[in-house]
Design a protein that fits this description.
Radius of gyration: 64 Å
Oligomer: single chain
Structural class: mainly alpha
Pfam families: Sec10_HB, Sec10_N
Largest sheet: 2 strands, antiparallel
Protein name: Exocyst complex component SEC10b
Strand content: under 5%
Number of helices: 30
Coiled coil: 244-266
Family: Belongs to the SEC10 family.
InterPro entries: Sec10-like, Sec10_HB, Sec10_N
Helix content: over 70%
Number of strands: 2
């Protein structure tokens, strides 16, 4: 477009010398207004630019530019030239007017062409629509023609299909008729003379056509048996005439089938000896027509070496039980069974490969094989290792007892279960191998709970007999090692042993493990677990109760020993000395029996804690799935342990009696009348406790050390509270035997401080309060007679005890204290 505009508009300085001619073609393609405008004005503007450049080169800066600032001249006073500043403007205006005129003309031309094109397009569109309408009518007609053609084709096809069905039915009938004729001919041959199989067709004697002969024989036999059945039914209804049937054919066919089956089995055995799998498969396929091949499958399984070889059976026994005459252990039996069952699994896996290649229904054969393995080979070895013992006369513990049988049963059951899983993985058809395995142990599992309880009872009895034997042996040898040392050893053997209780729990835990193994149903498991745990409760209850009773017997013997040496007042000095020596021995026996009983109580608590922990960790989770089972076991546990609690309570009462008896003896023997009524009253008093107090506190500290260790919680608090109350009463009774002067009162206060300091270790507030009141009452021996009335103004509850103590004052009569106090405390007079 640029070239065309330049060609039509030659450059000229004259305004009217530019003939502009614009063409429509100039606006086609990539039109640019800037290019059009440039081509229009480039012929005029360059002359002006050239002149401006020439003027600048000749005179330097243009005066009009350099000197003009804000519309005024600067540096010159001469006026500007009168020549026009932009002379081409008139040419440009003329050029633009001509261009606009030509553009208007071009627009009119374009509008005319567009109107013409619209008319042409409208005409062509009408023709096109008319053509499309005609084409649609033609297509509709074509579709109708196709529909008629499709209907005719469908009709012809249905007719052809009917004809084909008729032809196929006719061919099948022809084939059936042909086969029926052949079958009738064969049936007549078999219906000849009874037992005569010599005149049969060659088909029945040709070894190459055995499969065909077997198929035909089965068809003939089925038909003949059905015919005989129909004749029997008609005769029973009275509608048939007697005549000859197909009895001979049935008998001959049975003989032929038996002979053919035996012949095939012989061929199958011969091929099996050669490991000719193709011949075996052919024979098995033919034999499958006889009783679905059951005889062939059973025959194959029965002829396996592991079922008929006696050496295999003997090898199994040696592998599991070891050498003849040796006592097998459960661990050795477990290893032997694992090895044996692995061998059985490998053998079955090899047989499975052969069975899959030979038999048309391998799953049925595998079911027969696995069943035979479990019922013959596995049962044979289980019968050898699981001889059920009698509960009336069980085997002795020295020979393993009932526990050996139970352990063997658990090992055999676990290994057989593993074998069942392995055989299931190898393949056993539709056989429920797990149920069959369970049936092998059904007789043992039915009586298992009774055997388990009897075993626990046998173990407990054996342990107790062992303990009694050791104690008896120590007693018999006590003369050799010394009487006291032997008695000490015997007593330690008779003490409660936490180790024994732990062993009882271990027995029970092992029994629970077996119970979980044998009991699959939650209800059965809960019932068996409860029964077995009850055995443990009975054992622990009896054991710790008997241990506590033995410890109580020692306390009773010590008490009897004390009573034996209680003497009257009028005895000789020699007898009194002997009695005192014997009393010291009785006190030592009492202290020893006290400590022994505390040890028994401590071990009893530890044993109960072990049982309770075992119940929480192992038993409760097995009982929770069954409603009421957990609560019932908790109640049984409480009932069983209540006997031990009763024995412990009685023994603790005896311990308190023992301690009080010795405290009374020490006070009676060590307390002197001068301790609280010294003749040198007024001299500096002795601030030390009395010897009796020192001995009593030392004894209590020594003997109660074991109580502090053995008892805990509420039991400890109750025991020490009772002991403190008894001690307070005993001291009150004891001090009422003496007369007190002021220095003796101070000595009594010193004793009381010792007692108060000791009983504070009990941690019993009620006891502390009683001893504090004793300290207040003891002040009656120290204050002056006139101060007695005001001594108990804040504690009126102890006035009665205080009055009894006041009567023990040395100056009670001389100071006429009875009269003074009766006037002040009339309620006490």
């Amino acid at each position: 477009m640029t070239e065309r505009i330049r060609a039509r508009g030659p450059r000229s300085s004259s305004v009217n010398s530019v003939p502009l001619i614009l063409d429509i073609e100039d606006f086609k393609g990539d039109f640019s207004f800037d290019a059009l405008f440039g081509n229009l004005v480039n012929d005029l503007l360059p002359s002006f630019l050239d002149e401006e450049a020439d003027s600048g080169d000749g005179h330097g800066n243009i005066a009009g530019v350099d000197g003009l600032t804000n519309g005024h001249l600067r540096g010159q006073s001469a006026p500007l030239s009168s020549a026009p500043f932009f002379p081409e403007v008139d040419g440009l205006l003329s050029l633009f007017k001509d261009a606009c005129k030509e553009l208007v003309d071009l627009r009119k031309q374009v509008d005319g062409r567009l109107n013409t094109l619209k008319k042409e397009v409208s005409t062509q569109d009408s023709k096109h629509r008319k053509t499309l309408t005609e084409i649609e009518k033609g297509v509709d007609g074509l579709f109708e023609s196709f529909a008629r053609l499709d209907g005719r084709i469908s009709s012809v096809g249905q007719t052809a299909a009917k004809i084909g069905d008729h032809l196929q039915s006719a061919d099948a009938q022809r084939e059936t008729a042909s086969q029926t004729i052949d079958l009738i001919k064969y049936l007549m041959e078999f219906n000849g003379s009874p037992g005569d199989l010599m005149e049969l067709s060659a088909l029945f004697s040709d070894d190459s056509r055995v499969a065909e002969a077997a198929s035909i024989a089965q068809k003939l036999r089925s038909f003949a048996e059905e015919d005989i059945g129909r004749q029997g039914a008609s005769t029973a209804a009275g509608n048939a005439t007697p005549g000859r049937g197909l009895e001979v054919a049935v008998a001959n066919l049975q003989d032929y089938c038996n002979e053919l089956e035996n012949r095939l089995l012989s061929r199958f055995d011969a091929a099996s000896q050669r490991r000719d799998l193709s011949t075996m498969s052919e024979c098995a396929k033919i034999l499958s027509q006889f009783n679905r091949g059951t005889s062939a499958m059973q025959h194959y399984v029965a002829t396996r070496p592991m079922f008929i070889d006696v050496e295999v059976m003997n090898s199994d026994i040696r592998l599991v039980l070891g050498d003849h005459g040796s006592q097998p252990s459960p661990s050795n039996v477990a290893r032997g069974l694992s090895a044996l069952f692995k061998e059985i699994t490998d053998t079955v896996r090899k047989e499975a490969a052969t069975i899959t290649a030979v038999f048309p229904t391998p799953n049925e054969v595998m079911a027969i094989l696995v069943q035979r393995v479990l019922e013959q080979r596995v049962t044979g070895i289980l019968d050898k290792i699981l001889a059920k013992p009698s509960l009336m006369s069980p085997p002795p513990v020295q020979e393993g007892g009932l526990l050996l049988y139970l352990r063997m049963l658990a090992v055999a059951y676990e290994r057989t279960q593993e074998l069942a899983k392995d055989l299931r993985a190898v393949g056993c058809g539709d056989l429920d191998v797990e149920d069959l395995t369970e049936s092998l142990f059904s007789s043992h599992k039915d009586e298992y709970p009774e055997h388990e309880r009897a075993s626990l009872k046998q173990l407990y009895q054996a342990k107790m007999e062992e303990l009694r034997a050791e104690s008896q042996q120590v007693s018999e040898s006590s003369g050799t090692i010394g009487r006291s040392k032997g008695a000490s050893i015997s007593s330690s053997l008779q003490q409660i042993s936490v180790t024994f209780v732990t062993e009882f729990v271990r027995w029970n835990e092992e029994a629970i493990t077996r119970c979980t193994l044998f009991s699959s149903q939650p209800a059965t498991l809960a019932a068996n677990v409860k029964a077995i745990f009850t055995c443990l409760l009975d054992q622990v209850s009896v054991y710790i109760t008997e241990g506590l009773e033995r410890a109580r017997d020692s306390l009773s013997e010590a008490a009897a020993l004390r009573e034996r040496f209680v003497l009257g007042t009028s005895v000789s000095r020699r007898v009194a000395a002997a009695a005192a020596s014997a009393a010291e021995a009785a006190a030592a026996a009492g202290e020893s029996s006290f400590k022994s009983f505390m040890v028994a109580v401590q071990r009893c608590g530890s044993s109960v804690a072990i049982v309770q922990q075992y119940f929480a960790n192992s038993i409760s989770r097995l009982l929770l799935p069954v409603d009421g089972a957990h609560a019932a076991s908790c109640e049984e546990m409480s009932t069983a342990l209540s006997k031990a609690e009763a024995a412990a309570y009685k023994g603790l009462q005896q311990c308190i009696e023992t301690v009080m008896a010795e405290v009374d003896r020490l006070l009676s023997s060590e307390q002197k009348s001068t301790d609280y009524r010294s003749p040198d009253d007024g001299i500096a008093s002795d601030h030390r406790p009395t010897n009796a107090c020192i001995r009593v506190v030392a004894y209590l500290s020594r003997v109660l050390e074991s109580a502090f260790t053995a008892l805990e919680g509420l039991n400890k608090q109750a025991f020490l509270t009772e002991l403190g109350n008894r001690l307070e009463k005993l001291l009150l009774t004891h001090w009422q035997k003496f007369t007190f002067n002021p220095s003796g009162g101070l000595r009594l206060k010193r004793d009381l401080n010792e007692y108060v300091g000791f009983v504070k270790s009990f941690g019993a507030p009620s006891v502390d309060e009683k001893f504090e009141l004793l300290g207040i009452i003891a002040n009656v021996f120290i204050v002056a007679p006139d101060s007695l009335p005001t001594l108990f103004e804040g504690s009126p509850s102890i006035r009665k005890d205080a009055q009894r103590f006041i009567q023990l004052r040395e100056d009670y009569k001389s100071a006429k204290l009875a009269t003074k106090l009766s006037s002040l405390w009339p309620s006490l007079s």
